[in-house]
Amino acid sequence: MKRTTSGAVLAILAVLLVLTVAPAGADPKKITTAIDEASQSCRGVSQQIWEFKELGQQEVKSSALLKEELAKMGYKVTGDLKVPEDLVKDGVAKTAFKAEMAGKGPGPTVTLMLEYDALANGHACGHNLIATSGLMAAAGLAKVMKDTPGRVFVIGTPDEERGSLGGGKVALLEGGYFEGSDVVFITHGSDRWSLDQRLLAMKRANFTFKGKSAHAAAAPHKGVNALRGVLLTFNCVDHLREHLRQDVRIHGIVTKGGGPVNVVPELAQAEFACRALDTATMENAYGKIVNCAKAGELGTGATLEFKEPRVALKAAIVVPPLLDALKSNLKTLGIAADQFKDFDELASSDLGMVSYSYPTVNVWFKIAPEGTALHSDAFREAAKSDEGWTSAVLVGKSVALSAYEMLTKPEKLKAVQDSFKAAKAKEGK
User: Fold this and answer.
1) Are 361 and 319 in contact (CB under 8 A)?
2) CA 36: distance to chain centroid?
3) Which of 233, 278, 376, 386 is the most core-located residue (most Cβ within 10 A)?
4) Is domain 201-306 given the CATH code 3.40.630.30 in the classification?
5) Half-sphere exposure of 26 (CA within 13 A, CB side)
6) Is 286 helix (H, G, I), strand (E, B) or coil?
7) How far apart are CA 70 and CA 235, in angstroms?
8) Is 312 helix (H, G, I), strand (E, B) or coil?
9) Concatenated DSSP letters for 27-72?
10) How far apart are CA 227 and CA 82, in angstroms?
11) What is the C-alpha to C-alpha distance for residues 163 and 171, in angstroms, rounded to an integer?
12) Going by C-beta distance under 8 Å and a sequence separation of 6 or more, which residues neighbour residue 204?
């Protein structure tokens, strides 16, 4: 009898213990319902941002609109973020912002990134949908945070298109605005559904050659042709290509070639960008480009001026357990596994820099027919289409549900963090 009573008491205590230590949670259906309820107003925001078509560091109206919507959801919003002065003029990212919402007690921090800068031909990269798919995810999470441990950060990251110059996420990283993040999410419109996380590492080089002017006909021997230094650099780079790995990309332009044709050019300038699938390979190829410029200096007698760039973009760190979480939630929402496709064509992004500091995932969602090129006029039109918006709603739900899992399922978050540490250690070798 005593044993039975003792067993019952122990059982009751065990239940009480579980109830005490188990993380508080809410019904995930509240997340998708909240996103459905917010989708109409969020689409209005998307269309306005599309119409604004503000270039990087000029997204004043887009930023203000997003901050206003986040404040309505209950987020504490801060703008005019302080960043390093050598990355952003005056040291303030005027169009960046950070929104925060605390949950029920301590726990992990999930971060949503929003982009909203346009190109010269408008929102031909669909950043209006990046911003508002993230906004919908924020709306879904806001609905459950009172019953969920942890925090949500929503970071407005301007100027992605010029991110290699340090004006986008790099400035916010160095400003400390991602600190405390356990997982970071972002989305991007595409011509397919994909979880392909590959990004090309990239570094720019600006070369200035200084020579000596002279009359090009009467006394060319008295001059030093700076343009020849640039041309020799290009020729040398072209000879390199045979000996570079196939994923290496080197592209360059002449930014200044001289003045009047009858004057030996005393100043010439060129800009190059070097990319590769991994950071080490990119850096190796970059060093060879610099040597080509030095050869141009040696061969012509012109003086080379070159300074290492302040910012170089890293390749992305891939975190498979995070991809699995997104894929599972997308499957639940109706996107079958056979709809996911990898890319044959890759680019670079300041997102890679974030992925080196925090477990990060980018979800590509289909807004246009397959084969539609990013940055094209056709893709710009797709960014305001019904098809584009339907996919944006789905991806917003998948991000919110995956973020919720990171907040409420410690074993899944641990798997993500362990995978991230292992991948980063491997990259370091």
Assistant:
1) yes
2) 26
3) 233
4) no
5) 23
6) helix
7) 52
8) coil
9) -THHHHHHHHHHHHHHHHHHHHHHHH-PPTT--HHHHHHHHHHHHH
10) 41
11) 9
12) 164, 165, 271, 272, 273, 274, 309, 312
Tokens coding 393: 């709603």
Task: Work out whether the CA dihedral 405, 409, 410, 414 comes out positive or negative.
Answer: negative
Question: What is the rounded CA–CA span in Å between residue 223 and residue 220?
Answer: 5
pTM above 0.90, yes or no: no
The CATH number of domain 25-199+314-428, selected from 3.40.630.10, 3.20.20.30, 3.20.20.80, 1.10.620.20: 3.40.630.10
Measured CA to CA in angstroms, residue 97 lies from 43, 115, 128, 133, 204 at distances of 21, 11, 16, 17, 27
Contact 362, 187 (CB under 8 A): yes
CA 47, 50, 56, 58 torsion: positive or negative?
Answer: negative
Chain-centroid distance of CA 274 in Å reads 18
User: Over its length of 429 residues, how does the chain's per-residue pLDDT go in tens digits?
Assistant: 333 444 444 444 443 433 334 444 568 899 999 999 999 999 999 999 999 999 999 999 999 999 999 999 999 999 999 999 888 888 889 999 999 999 999 999 999 999 999 999 999 999 999 999 999 999 999 999 999 999 999 999 999 998 767 668 999 999 999 999 999 999 999 999 999 999 999 999 999 999 999 999 999 999 999 999 999 999 999 999 999 999 999 999 999 999 999 999 999 999 999 999 999 999 999 999 999 999 999 999 999 999 999 889 999 999 999 999 999 999 999 998 889 999 888 889 999 999 999 999 999 999 999 999 999 999 999 999 999 999 999 999 999 999 999 999 999 999 999 999 999 888 765
Residue boundaries of the structural domains of the chain: 25-199+314-428, 201-306
Helices and strands (DSSP H and E) totals, the chain: 12, 10
| Cβ atoms of residues 93 and 171 within 8 Å | yes
Whose tokens are 């029920």? That residue is: 104
For strand 303-306 and strand 201-210, is the pairing parallel, antiparallel, or unpaired?
A: antiparallel
Residues near 415 by beta carbon (within 8 Å), at least 6 away in sequence: 321
CA 370 to chain centre: 22
With beta carbons less than 8 A apart as the criterion, state whether 206 and 256 touch. Answer: no
Same fold yes or no, 25-199+314-428 and 201-306: no
First-to-last C-alpha distance (Å) of the chain? 64
